[in-house]
């Protein structure tokens, strides 16, 4: 039985504290983050609270591009259609499909384009979101399938919108010149930070002697490596907020990128309201690209969301929208909204090719 919103934090905190006791009283942050987000029935993505929506009045915590404007999925479908043809595949795989809004937009657009898709598989750890996805995608009931993990080998085109940022990260804190891994301990009914000396280091030397907090993305790396090992033929497109490595580990970014979202407010305390708010870190796209290459994939492109959507035909589509729809769609490319912070990384298995979404403004050389 699903816990009520009122009892969620207490029940999840008790579970995490039990896990903590079994590990000697200290959990590395990536383990804490995994429990806070994905513990069955209790974690943020595993409970039945609203998460996605444009306004806090709905009880939602944040909005993603597909909820902002259907034009996002329509334009992504243009790129996916090209990828299906260029890779000679007929299956789509989506990681972390949220409400199912993106899948619906993509499938409707591909149907309108006359692009044949044999199967659309959603890989999602959340049972409650899966139920919502099934309802949203009822018109494609015979086409859409769900899986808990990737098969040992597969071919197709993969998409993930705001998936990499939700993967647990390890926190590294440099204090007085010495590196520590930041972990979590019990503090009464709640939690507190505790740092331990570590041999772990960021991938770049951080200039200066000042105290410095940052993240490393070992689980994200492992995910991309697994994808590379199992994808026999096809492509993958990941859209997320983040930076290349030199910007990610800039000396001035001394507080890291970890943030939380609750009722459309942003804060930096993941130890509060555990299970009731999203915990996320920006993506180190250089690390993802290197992991992909080491697993045998090609980097096909890397650019901003603005460049990607414009390359896929955004501007002519916007001209056909009513004024309010045009203003909303513009947020997808505006520099102070999603346009610059969000990036698109394209990976390929098989012979390399140049996707249309990266025709202008490709930044692969900056990874």
Short description:
With 367 residues, this protein is an alpha/beta fold. The protein has helices spanning 8-22, 29-38, 65-68, 71-87, 101-113, 127-136, 218-230, 245-248, 285-294, 305-311, 314-319, 323-330, 335-339; strands at 27-28, 91-95, 119-123, 144-147, 154-161, 170-175, 178-187, 190-197, 212-216, 231-243, 259-262, 265-267, 278-280, 283-284, 298-304, 342-349.
Can you characterise this structure?
This protein is of the alpha/beta class and 367 residues long. Strands 2, 3, 4, 5, 10, 14, 15 and 16 form an 8-stranded mixed beta sheet that branches. Strands 1, 6, 7, 8 and 9 form a 5-stranded antiparallel beta sheet that branches. Strand 7 and strand 8 form a beta hairpin. The chain is globular. The N terminus is likely disordered.
């Amino acid at each position: 039985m699903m816990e009520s919103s009122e009892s969620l934090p207490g029940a999840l905190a008790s579970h995490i504290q039990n896990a903590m006791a079994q590990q000697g009283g200290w959990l590395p942050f990536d383990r804490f983050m995994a429990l806070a987000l994905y513990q069955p029935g209790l974690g943020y993505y595993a409970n039945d609270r609203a998460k996605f929506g444009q306004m806090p009045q709905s009880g939602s915590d944040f909005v993603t591009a597909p909820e902002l404007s259907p034009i996002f999925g329509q334009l992504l479908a243009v790129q996916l259609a090209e990828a299906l043809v260029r890779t000679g595949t007929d299956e789509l795989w989506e990681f972390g499909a949220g409400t199912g809004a993106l899948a619906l937009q993509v499938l409707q657009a591909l149907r309108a384009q006359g692009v044949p898709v044999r199967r659309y598989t959603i890989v999602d750890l959340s049972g409650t979101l899966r139920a919502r996805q099934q309802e949203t995608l009822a018109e494609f009931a015979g086409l859409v399938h769900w899986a808990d993990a990737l098969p040992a080998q597969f071919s197709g085109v993969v998409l993930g919108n705001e998936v990499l940022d939700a993967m647990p990260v390890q926190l590294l804190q440099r204090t007085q010149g010495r590196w520590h891994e930041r972990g979590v301990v019990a503090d009464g009914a709640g939690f507190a930070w505790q740092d331990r000396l570590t041999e772990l280091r960021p991938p770049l030397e951080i200039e200066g002697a000042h105290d410095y907090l940052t993240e490393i993305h070992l689980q994200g790396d492992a995910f991309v490596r697994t994808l590379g090992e199992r994808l026999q033929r096809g492509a993958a497109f990941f859209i997320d907020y983040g930076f290349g490595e030199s910007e990610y580990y800039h000396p001035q970014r001394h507080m890291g990128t970890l943030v939380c979202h609750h009722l459309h407010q942003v804060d930096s305390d993941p130890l509060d309201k555990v299970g009731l708010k999203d915990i996320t870190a920006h993506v180190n796209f250089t690390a993802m690209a290197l992991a992909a290459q080491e697993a045998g994939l090609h980097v096909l492109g890397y650019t901003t969301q603005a460049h990607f959507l414009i390359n896929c035909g955004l501007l002519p589509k916007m001209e056909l929208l009513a004024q309010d729809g045009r203003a909303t769609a513009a947020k997808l490319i505006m520099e102070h909204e999603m346009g610059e912070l969000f990036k698109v990384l394209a990976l390929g298995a098989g012979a390399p090719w140049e996707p249309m979404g990266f025709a202008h403004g490709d930044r692969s050389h900056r990874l």
